Structures are given as C-alpha cells and as structure tokens.
Amino acid sequence: MITFIILIIILIFLIIISIIFLYKPFKKGFTQNTFKKGFAQKNGGKKNNYINEGKGNIHKNILGTDLIPCCDINTEKITGFNRDGMCSSNAADTGTHIICAIVDDDFLEFTKTKGNDLITPSGAFPGLVAGDKWCLCILRWIEAHKAGKAPKIIPESTNELAFKYVSKEILMKYITF
Distance between CA atoms of 119 and 104, rounded to whole angstroms? Predict the structure, then answer.
C-alpha cells in the first residue's frame, strides 16, 4: 500500500513538472527560423489566446490605456507574434514580442550581429528597413538598450507586460509620438 502511494506521489510530481515546462513561456530571443512559410499571415479574425486571458483579452499599453496596433495592418509587413498588428504575447511566443519600436539601422545591424537578421527577407518574412514599426522581443530590446542601440518605442502600442522586464524610467527615455 505504501509503495502504491509513493508511486502516485511520484506520478503527480512528474505531471506537475511536465505542465510547468510545457506551458511556461521561455524568455529568449527568436531567430529567422521563427518565420516559416505561411506563418506571417493575417489572423483571420480568430480570437487570440493571450497571456492575460483571465483579464478578458483587454491588453493595456505602458500608458495604461488600451493597446493599439503597432503597424498598419493593411500593409504586407504585419507585425506581432499573432500577425495581427498587436504587440501581445501568449505561451507560444518564446520571444515575448511586446515592444512596439520604430526600427532604425543601428538596431537592425545590432540584432543581425546577434544572429537575428531582420533585414533579409526569408520565406513569408518580408525583411525590415529603417522606419518600419515592429513588435520586438523584450529581451533583445533590453540587450540593445544596454549596448546603446535600442530603437524608439511607440508607447500606445507597447504592451504593459514590458514592465515585468524593464523599468518605466528606462522605457520612457525611448518614447516617440
């Protein structure tokens, strides 16, 4: 009987560990391999499975108001992990694309040296040029900030989840309207 109870406890422990590792978003950057053929497509009107699902899918920006699209969704360069123009995130978004930035040449070259070439088109990914608005990985943006290469951000389109990674004071230094 004791052996049976121990086996049940071990099984429950393994299930809990599996759930943690399967559903916890990883905090790392993404690469060009993120963009597979057909990935960069419009969302098709489907409701997104956001991290803050329990809050009614109402995302807020760093100003405390409703999150608005980072880019014009009528263009070929639709940003956001869900390709809906929004810098929102979900458990599948291992890069946590929550910073809406106006990319510049300094940032594009910086991220290319880190192994993430955002300039070169690849598959469905159109490639970026200076002036494009794009949802960036929070950790890459912080890395660029520390190197003096972070691009300006659009506060109305930058997700409030950014405050979990970087202070308000730092973000406010990069605001552009």
Answer: 11
pLDDT tens for 43-94 read 333 333 334 433 445 789 999 999 999 998 888 899 999 999 999 998 899 9
Q: Find where tokens 């552009």 sit.
A: 176
**pTM, to two decimals:** 0.68
Give pLDDT, residue 20. Answer: 64
User: What is the distance between the alpha carbons of residues 132 and 127, in angstroms, rounded to a whole number?
Assistant: 10
Class of domain 26-172: alpha beta
The pLDDT of residue 11: 74
* Separation CA 19–CA 6 (nearest Å): 20
Calpha distance 81→77 (Å, rounded): 12
Measure the CA–CA gap between 38 and 96, rounded to whole angstroms: 20
Q: Residue 125: which residues within 8 A CB-CB, separation 6 or more?
A: 32, 35, 39, 40
Q: CA 68, 72, 74, 76 torsion: positive or negative?
A: negative
